[in-house]
Amino acid sequence: MSCTKSGNGCTNGNGVDNNNEDDAVEISTETRYLDGTVRLRNPNIELMDQDILYHLALGSESHDLVEMFGDVKFVCMGGTPKRMFNFAEYIMKEIGHKLPTGTQLMDISQYSYRYSMYKVGPVLSISHGMGAPSIGILLHEVIKLMYHARCRDPVFFRIGTCGGIGLEGGTVIISDNAADGMMNKYYQVPVLGKLVKRPAKLDKKLVKELKALANPDDPYDTVTGTTMCADDFYEGQGRLDGAFCDYSEADKMEYLERLRSNGIRNIEMEATTFAALTHHAGIKAAIVCVALLDRMKGDQVCTPKEVLTEWQLRPQILVARYIKRYLQTKGRISLDGHGSMAVKSPRRFKLVQQESQTFE
């Protein structure tokens, strides 16, 4: 069964997913053309003179998006620009990508001052900011970018940090489900005054493939489990150290124990949005995070900076293993070239930059 038969995904009136959770993402004619390129679930886009991807400082007529991004297979997202620049440099070494002499990685979306985007051959490395609204905006525009660039069957990853639930700091968690703070496994958003609920589903086959790539020699554990997506860093995650706290430590521990008993292994702030929007677009997606602490033991991250820096590499290593293995099977492990800017219309190019810029 293809989960694309209704405007809100395969849900009943209560937003409950009726499909088998063990299914991988199934591709339907609503999300793919026959050649595998991305098809948008929005007929308005095809009628527009130009689609400006405002928060990326790109446009469908100002830039030659097929030339710039047509070979993209993997879209990797993480919270901060610095982390995703570091990932771009790391994946470049892992897949043997070579930049032309005298060039360096370029932030393609630098004129938006909102997100940072780096292209390394078939890999996009993009910062998504913090929280559901920020990653939601980015996903809308990146999914549209995949459409305009005619990318075939892209795979999305979120590479991040989180708080573990009964897991030690440094543990890598691959999300096999996503739930909100009420443990609902859907993402809801008000649309035209009505709450639209979309199932927050991740690709089960992709989860298994990632788990299989965990090396027994890795000096840390890699586990799978449900990820809770909070709308807030403090009260929404049951922390005791926010500006407000109207509950006791006993209340907090009771809540965390309830999460753990329901299979929730970690808490972050983007999972349901990421899972629901990629699933609604028919895009295979996975979330790989590293725990910075065990929330059962405290609220504040007190680990030394150099240790945190090493921990944050761990999800990148796992995702890089997947990408590298895929490219090796396709005979594409040595790649030359650079994701440089390709301008179709200089006038429109300048206008898009001006419209996307913000001034301090």
From TrEMBL:
One Gene Ontology term from the biological process aspect of the record: uridine catabolic process
SUPFAM superfamilies in UniProt: Purine and uridine phosphorylases (SSF53167)
Positions with biased composition (Low complexity): 7-18
GO molecular function, one term: uridine phosphorylase activity
Residues that coordinate or bind phosphate: R114, R158, I159, G160, T161
Family from the record: Belongs to the PNP/UDP phosphorylase family.
Species of the source: Phyllotreta striolata
NCBIfam families in the record: euk_UDPppase
Annotated segments matching region Disordered: 1-22
GO cellular component annotations of the record: cytosol
Protein name: Nucleoside phosphorylase domain-containing protein
Record: residues binding substrate: Q237, R239
Domain Nucleoside phosphorylase: 73-324
